[in-house]
Design a protein that fits this description.
3 helices; three-stranded antiparallel β-sheet; 127 residues; globular
């Protein structure tokens, strides 16, 4: 059997990032760019070179707030998700909301470890 080597060009990755940004901007004409007024925590990443701000969502408002900022149809409460950057699972309602690079983003509860956002979530199951 011949050893087959796969060569992946780097150009499609650039396209995917651009398409993702267009998708996010198309879905959000308001909430994504209007900074949440209350910041509860500052997160320092990359040895302090990058700073993002986290809004800690009250439990009773969690699903409503996530629905405003989630770039796709929000999975039901109790849906088990996987963050592909850390390969860790979490419930959708454990997601966080941060302000980064001029946008509100729904991110993984493991954001500080792998910097995964909603585009990096895979739906596993509904509990």
């Amino acid at each position: 059997m011949e050893d087959t080597k796969l060569n992946f060009p780097t150009k499609p990755l650039t396209f995917v990032v651009e398409a993702r940004d267009i998708l996010i901007k198309a879905k959000f004409s308001g909430p994504i760019t209007g900074k949440v007024s209350k910041v509860d925590k500052t997160i320092h990443l990359d040895a302090g070179m990058l700073t993002v701000e986290e809004y800690i969502i009250p439990d009773d408002q969690k699903m409503d707030v996530l629905a405003q900022y989630y770039p796709f149809e929000l999975p039901k409460r109790g849906t088990l998700m996987c963050d592909i950057h850390t390969n860790k699972t979490f419930l959708i309602q454990e997601s966080k909301l941060i302000w980064d690079e001029g946008a509100n983003l729904v991110v993984s509860p493991f954001y500080e470890e792998g910097q995964g956002n909603a585009l990096d979530f895979i739906e596993i199951d509904t509990i």
